[in-house]
Amino acid sequence: MEVEVAKRFENVLLGRVELELHVTHEAKGTPRREEVQRKVAEMESAKPELVIVRRMEPEFGKGATRGSVRVYKDAANLKRLEAHHILVRHKLAEKKVKAAAESSVPASQAAAPAPKK
């Protein structure tokens, strides 16, 4: 797997570096987010937990993938700025669970109309 930075933008106001990547992976499947995260952390001299892989889009039939990555300066900015589902995807937050219904009867049975006679 070879990672090439297509575009690099240092966003000083938000305390992060935004990267557009071009990843080549001949004769292999699309690389996992964790692999890309480690490789970018190594390239940018950052901790892997401060690297957020936003998007990975494989190019059909080419053995290449385009991606969008953000490298944060500190964890506080990362948790303040990133969407909750992205934090869950990177195991930096817990998934929100909807409150369970008060009764143990499934909704499909509770809402069923009475049979007609």
Q: Could you explain the architecture of this structure?
A:
It is a single chain. The chain is α+β, with helices and mostly antiparallel strands. It has a single domain (2-94), classed as 2-Layer Sandwich (Alpha-Beta Plaits). The protein contains four helices and four strands. The termini are far apart. The mean pLDDT is 85.
Through-space gap between termini: 68 Å
Structural class: alpha+beta
Count of alpha and pi helical runs = 4
Mean pLDDT: 85
Largest sheet: 4 strands, antiparallel
Strand content: 25-35%
Helix content: 10-25%
Q: Give a count of the beta strands, DSSP E runs of length 2 or more.
A: 4
- Indicate the multimeric state: single chain
Features:
32% strand; 117 residues; Alpha-Beta Plaits; four-stranded antiparallel β-sheet; alpha+beta
